[in-house]
Structure to design on (436 residues):
């Protein structure tokens, strides 16, 4: 609710007697009484009032608006309030490790052995991990190998089976964890054992202490929004096997954590892509393509294409052109609640290609469309410190954000010896004549 001209806005600390009320009506009445007490009038009953509470039921930044005896409120969530809370002790954990990396084998064996033998947890790993012959070289692994639970991507459903996830590797392991869960995602704890590590804030040196803190609920969370992408094929572009029996297309749905990319593929021609926002045609993209990204993905492909970096807690969708054939086409940010529709322009000389977090690449033909909205299933990423510190540490360490040599201080003593406030142009000129 936005306060209009003439509205009365009151910001106050909510007292204990108000906070103790569990009934919404009682809270409103108490706030009205508090307002009358301060202003000694009946403006709240007959006029307009917006009340901003700093604590209690409506949250730290809750806003209440009273207009014509109708109470409406909205809340702006404080990122610091996002904390990990276990309603029951976690019993199952999914461990995802980076593939084809010898440096991850030893940490992986240490972690799963500790989780099974010390924490008495049920550990799930991908079936392909059990088939890796390099793990048999570790003497500790055979003792826990038979106690590991396995799954296969695309065949086994992990929904409601996993309490939390541990990733060992780089940012790709977190993207893979996101792909495994196309609905609700368990909390993810990511250890930095890869290359960049922008999304992996934990170091493996003291993993026992850090995992214990997480299991005890002593951790902050970053809710990383995802995009739901639905590819709708034109019925004229389908064969019989791709229809649902009624001659209609079967939409393909994907959840992405970073970005969905639409590009010109192998064609030498410009992409010509129509962009719609909530059904309204916004623009046509003529260039190499388009990136639609989450705030998490703003520091990935999008930033390389000239986009701004957005904190993952900001509810937004970024639209970034790739090498647009226009000097004025700048990246834009739109609200998280909108629906974007992307299609190949009828005048396009070629088709387009689309990929989702670098996977499931497919061709968009004329008449096909891609619809993108913010998913209701974010990825709860566990913080090493807190939301703000983790993000800025990653900017500094991984991207060297705003790194430059420090400007030298002026030597004030040397400056004073060269001139003083009493110097004049005439005196300086005379000194120069004498020197000559």
């Amino acid at each position: 609710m936005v306060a209009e001209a003439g509205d009365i806005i009151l910001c106050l600390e909510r007292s204990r007697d108000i906070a103790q009320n569990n009934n919404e009506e009682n809270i409103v009445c108490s706030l009205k009484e508090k307002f009358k007490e301060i202003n000694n009038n009946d403006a709240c009953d007959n006029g307009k009032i917006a009340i901003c509470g700093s604590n209690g039921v409506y949250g730290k930044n809750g806003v209440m608006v009273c207009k014509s005896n109708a109470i409406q409120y909205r809340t702006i969530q404080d990122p610091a309030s996002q904390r990990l809370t276990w309603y029951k002790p976690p019993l199952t954990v999914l461990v995802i490790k980076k593939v084809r990396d010898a440096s991850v084998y030893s940490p992986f064996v240490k972690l799963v052995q500790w989780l099974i033998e010390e924490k008495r947890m049920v550990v799930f790993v991908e079936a392909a991990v059990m088939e890796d012959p390099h793990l048999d070289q570790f003497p500790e692994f055979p003792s826990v190998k038979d106690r590991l639970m396995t799954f296969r991507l695309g065949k086994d459903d992990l929904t409601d089976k996993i309490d939390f996830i541990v990733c060992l590797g780089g940012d790709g392991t977190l993207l893979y964890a996101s792909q495994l869960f196309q609905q609700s995602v368990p909390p993810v704890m990511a250890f930095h054992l890869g290359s960049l590590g922008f999304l992996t804030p934990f170091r493996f040196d003291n993993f026992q202490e850090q995992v214990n803190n997480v299991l005890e609920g002593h951790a902050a969370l970053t809710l990383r929004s995802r995009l739901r992408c639905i590819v709708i094929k034109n019925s004229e572009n389908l064969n019989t096997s791709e229809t649902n029996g009624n001659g209609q297309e079967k939409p393909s749905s994907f959840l992405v954590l970073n970005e969905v990319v639409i590009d010109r593929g192998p064609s030498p021609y410009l992409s010509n892509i129509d962009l719609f926002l909530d059904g309204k045609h916004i623009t046509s993209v003529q260039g190499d393509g388009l990136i639609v990204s989450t705030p998490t993905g703003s520091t990935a492909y999008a930033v390389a294409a000239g986009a701004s970096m957005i904190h993952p807690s900001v509810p937004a969708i970024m639209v970034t052109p790739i090498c647009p054939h226009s000097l004025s086409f700048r990246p834009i940010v739109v609200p998280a609640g909108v629906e974007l529709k992307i299609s190949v322009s009828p005048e396009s000389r070629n088709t387009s290609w689309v990929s989702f977090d670098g996977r499931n690449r497919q061709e968009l033909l004329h008449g096909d469309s891609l619809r993108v909205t913010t998913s209701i299933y974010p990825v709860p990423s566990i913080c090493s410190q807190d939301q703000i510190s983790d993000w800025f540490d990653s900017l500094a360490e991984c991207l060297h954000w705003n790194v430059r040599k420090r400007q030298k201080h002026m030597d004030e003593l040397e400056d004073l010896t060269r001139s003083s406030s009493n110097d004049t142009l005439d005196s300086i000129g005379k000194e120069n004549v004498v020197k000559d």
Notes: The chain has three domains: 8-76, 92-219, 227-374. The chain has a mean pLDDT of 81. DSSP finds twelve helices and 23 strands in the chain.
